[in-house]
Write the structure tokens for this entry.
Amino acid sequence: MNSPTLPTLALRGADIPLLGLGTWQSEGDDARHAVRAALELGYRHVDTATGYGNEAQVGRGLADSGVAREDVFLTTKLPPSAAGRERETIESSLTDLGTDHLDLWLVHWPPNGAATPATWERLIELRDAGLTRAIGVSNYSVAQIDELVAATGEAPAINQVPWSPGDFDAELVAAHAARGVALEGYSPFKRTDLDSPVLVEIAAAHGVSTRQVVLRWHLEHQVVVIPKSTRRERIAANLDVLGFTLDADEVARIDSLPPTADA
């Protein structure tokens, strides 16, 4: 099949596809088969983490797919417990993933709840040594990002955070943009009322599902999104969001949706 043209966002060091496959809670052969299916369907962005315990399976799925490594944007994450063992951790990740470099390496959570500039300095060094093309953080506050910048002079390329219509915060978006930090969202569906009348109406107008509307909303905001699934048909449906767009009024209505109980 012909691969769809995935929109990308320019990061410092690499261009990241705005839509990728998440692999949290994907285990064993399920993770391997999900990655292979996603790449066969046209995905070119896969997100994992050392803490997920599935990097070796993700690596096998990448190898099984036959897609060239240079055509896939690959992200993994440093566990907060591995602060101080950054080189050892990334080298283990590279071995498990079957590659000699990452496209993006994130600090998964602030170690001990603190920004920890010393760890950020190690990420910069390992990036400069060629082990990853870009570096960023996950679950960091704006104040913690500012602490990293104050200590090192370099902001993360991206911050991966929980994100959904109910999480939308224009001030948070603006704060990241002002610092040159892209936003990447996880848990787009878990934190969304997919039966919301607003989403149902917009989905019907475009002949798509409410899940597809939520993913398209991320793309309209230039927020990277990594929906997780191990089912080939769901993986395919999550990718099938390039044939329609949302107008400004639709985006604004989705922005205004209230948070769910999970958010």
Q: What stands out?
A: The mean pLDDT is 95. The radius of gyration is 18 Å. The CA atoms of residues 55 and 93 lie 7 Å apart. The chain is about 40% helix and 15% strand.
